[in-house]
Amino acid sequence: MAPRSSLPTSSKKRKGDAVEDELYASIQQFEEQLVAAASSSKSSLNPLADLLDIAVNATDAQALSKAVYALYRVFVVIITNGLLLNVAGNDEARAVRAWIQVKLNAYTRLLTGGLLATYSKDQHPHAPANHLSILERLTTFPTEISEVNKWWVEELGVRPPKPKSAGQDDDEDDTKDINIDDADEENEDDWRKFFDEQETDENPKAEQKNPLGRLHKLTLHQSLHSLSSHKAVFTRAWLNLLPMLSHGPAEYTKSLMTRALNIMHRGVMPHLTRAVMVMDWVASCVDYGPYFVTSTDSLTNSPTGGTVGLLALNALFILIKEYNLDYPSFYTRLYAFLDRDVLHLKHRARFFRMTELFLSSTLLPVTLLASFIKRLARLSLNAPPAAIVMIVPFTYNIVKKHPSLMAMIHRVDDTFEAANDPFQTNEKNPTLTNAIESSLWELYSQKHHYHSAVSTLVRIFEEAFTKPNYSLEDFLDHTYGTMYESEGKRRIKKEPATGMEVTPFAYFPGPAQNLDEAGGDKVNGLWVFS
């Protein structure tokens, strides 16, 4: 006996389709009756209650949509014909008007009920992604008040009147600007001033940056014409969003944080009222980057930061360089990111750009720089050719800029052996690794690399350091694909051998001596391996 199907039978399906068709026809019929009744003001509006009941009790999405739009068109006709206007009339007209108002309120509750969510405002699962998607689209931001010149509502483009300040009457307010200094004296104990940009002699326009007065006293119209108000709203939007990005499933939050960090340094921090207000969140992305990885680097015996941490380093460096943020463990955290995974990540090229910038200062201690180039040299032993091609010019530029590191490539101590390398791979502090006492023997071994581009490039360390620094951008985009393409386009200077004479059993003399005299080796008799 065949198993019973869980799908409805054809008769039940036809019956269900008939019921739906009948319901759709009823909705259309009620709408036509109500439109005619509202237009003539003589027929009854009682079908309005029936149509509203269909919308409230509908279980099918299509039926609900048809009923809602039908009610919308009916109420448009009712309102257009003035049936809800509070005009003089008899008791019957007032009763009809009150009844229609009750039905309109019920329709409004139906629409708003469809917009309600069961999630709380603080735990809505889609709020962070939606919030971030909106802020990502803000590719430009006004930097001068003259750039605030486009309005969705044209009437708001009219300049608002200037607010009155203490000691000024109405006549003086029409001819003089407000006294910003007096306003500041009145509010000298206001904590909000802590977040305002300080006036300096280098910026003579600072006094007139916000002629409308204190931000928290501005009306909505005045705020729209204040550049400081725009920056304050932009800052609040990001400060409310960033904590939300750190809550939720790991993969989900990692994706959102990566998107935010991609634009943090160029599209967010320059437009905040004070960029240092995001320092806690950025530092947490660097310090707690191991939360987002699933592996542990054996070289450091500790989890590494992953993609989120790499991107956060860029924003953190901007805060240190341009906003005087104090972060003493910056280079310790940067050193922790040098693991095997960093040479295989999607953001590998960006990481090397940032690292070259971070190590460009001539005031950095030699012991710290030695740890970085030694660590990269050690990683090159297991790195793909495209990564080694980046490591070699990166190391060359650092050694050329800091001649004290020359000892690492010219060490001729007979007692030094790779097995007794003084470099401490498990040390997390880059100033205590003893790398300066070691050598770059790992790069020397790359002379015998199977890929000619690597073996040729690494020989630069055997020559005098008279060549200019390499442009690292020329080596960051190399992949297996680009290397294969360049090899395919290379012109052959010397034709390779097309054939060679191979004597039988030349490569397998051992087995050939122990063969059965009668049968012999049939394989080597028919084939020659080369």
UniProtKB/TrEMBL annotation:
<comment type="similarity">
    <text>Belongs to the CBF/MAK21 family.</text>
</comment>
<protein>
    <recommendedName>
        <fullName>CCAAT-binding factor domain-containing protein</fullName>
    </recommendedName>
</protein>
<dbReference type="GO" id="GO:0042254">
    <property type="term" value="P:ribosome biogenesis"/>
</dbReference>
<feature type="domain" description="CCAAT-binding factor">
    <location>
        <begin position="310"/>
        <end position="457"/>
    </location>
</feature>
<dbReference type="GO" id="GO:0030692">
    <property type="term" value="C:Noc4p-Nop14p complex"/>
</dbReference>
<feature type="compositionally biased region" description="Acidic residues">
    <location>
        <begin position="168"/>
        <end position="186"/>
    </location>
</feature>
<dbReference type="InterPro" id="IPR027193">
    <property type="entry name" value="Noc4"/>
</dbReference>
<dbReference type="GO" id="GO:0032040">
    <property type="term" value="C:small-subunit processome"/>
</dbReference>
<feature type="region of interest" description="Disordered">
    <location>
        <begin position="159"/>
        <end position="186"/>
    </location>
</feature>
<dbReference type="Pfam" id="PF03914">
    <property type="entry name" value="CBF"/>
</dbReference>
<dbReference type="InterPro" id="IPR005612">
    <property type="entry name" value="CCAAT-binding_factor"/>
</dbReference>
